[in-house]
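Cross-posting from the chemistry board since nobody answered there.

I work mostly on the small-molecule side, so proteins are not my area. We synthesized nicotinamide-adenine-dinucleotide and want a rough idea of how it might sit in this target. Sequence and SMILES are below. Is it possible to get a predicted 3D structure of the two together?
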Amino acid sequence: MDTISIKTRDSYNVYLGKGILQGLPGLLNDTSYEAISGRNLIYIVTDRNVSRHYLKGIISGLKKNGYKIKYSVFSPGEALKNHQSLFKLLQTMVKRGLTRDSAVIGLGGGVIGDFSGFAASIYMRGCGFIQIPTTLLAQVDSSVGGKVGINLKAGKNLVGSFYNPVFVLSDISTLHTLEAREIICGLAEIIKSGLIFSKELFEDVLDFFRDYIGENKKTAPSVEIKKLLLSDMDFLQEIIHKSISIKGEIVRVDERESDLRMILNFGHTFGHAVEKLTRYRRFLHGEAVLLGMKIACELSLACGRVGENDLRKIRGLLNIFGIPSVKGLKAKTIFNQLGVDKKKKEGKIHYIVLDEIGRAVSETEIDESKVIACIEKVLAEQAGNNK
Ligand SMILES: NC(=O)c1ccc[n+]([C@@H]2O[C@H](COP(=O)([O-])OP(=O)(O)OC[C@H]3O[C@@H](n4cnc5c(N)ncnc54)[C@H](O)[C@@H]3O)[C@@H](O)[C@H]2O)c1
């Protein structure tokens, strides 16, 4: 098992490995966090897809170790992150006797992590919180950095807080039951981490998929990519470890999302616009980020930053992942949507562009026509791929 230390205001460990879920009672026993070492009530928040595979085993392990357990199982999906569900959970937590000295475990993907973490952050002004991320995206991204929250009608993640867990337990064996498209979404975040911060990580992934990359190669089916990736769990653990370390380092330097943390939005600015314009129905988040990264890379070239050689490698890798059709999407509409995004600061859109593989910067002075041309280029290429 790897232990990665995230050094923030209140530092915490991410435990990463294969088949380590059964080690949860041991990790709880070892923590100095009072509520947990005192065998107080533990409240597990999860969703149906995850509970089906993992809840029973976790509860039985904890009970054997003397913990009192209560739990809530919700319907899966982004719709959970709303204020009605939040207040329903908080009221159930009161009814079931949770005190400030209890701890909440978020067992699931980013939705469960954001939702349960936010509940823990405001319940009686904050109780203990443990993340057990079970999607690749949650393991490399949402479980690290302390951002928790819910959505409003006006937009995603508009209500929330920064609330760090006591620890994160990432068992990569749970990825076997995850849908193939969700694996691609996590991979998109890993590739993003490589592009913005670590050439080595990017080259690792590029090298792993080298047989799929070439002039006339078609996109690979997501089930095939999942199978290949999960056939080498050591490699998977290594790239997840590197991604967590990168996110940890960015968060250590800039916990409250001022400048450095903004580079994590690489590909997201465009991706969010596409998700919103397709009403969150057509693209999974990571798929929209893949499209967004393609646009951000073309923009990097158009701004005279990233070189053709780097761009060829990036295009080669990004093109192996199939994404939903871009039918009906217009470059100008995507551009207009960028202005509505909350990532806009002081009236200016911050575009995250690549200087080279492994280094990203924020640019605010880019001509509208240049941005629209890059979006148009990628949409046209994508329309060709989707045929
Ligand atoms: N807090 C942050 O810093 C941060 C960062 C990125 C994304 N997010 C948030 O994360 C959310 C997306 O997270 P996600 O991509 O993990 O989606 P998700 O939580 O919706 O999970 C995706 C699907 O996989 C299922 N699932 C989860 N684990 C499984 C497993 N091991 N086996 C089988 N099925 C499983 C879920 O039930 C769900 O249907 C969004 O709400 C986004 O806003 C937060």
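Reply from a structural biologist on the board:
Welcome over. Reading the output above for you: The chain has a mean pLDDT of 92. The pocket of nicotinamide-adenine-dinucleotide is lined by residues 47, 49-50, 53, 76-78, 81, 108-112, 114, 134-135, 137-138, 141-142, 145, 147, 156-157, 174, 177-178, 182, 185, 285 (CB under 6 Å). Happy to explain the token format if needed.
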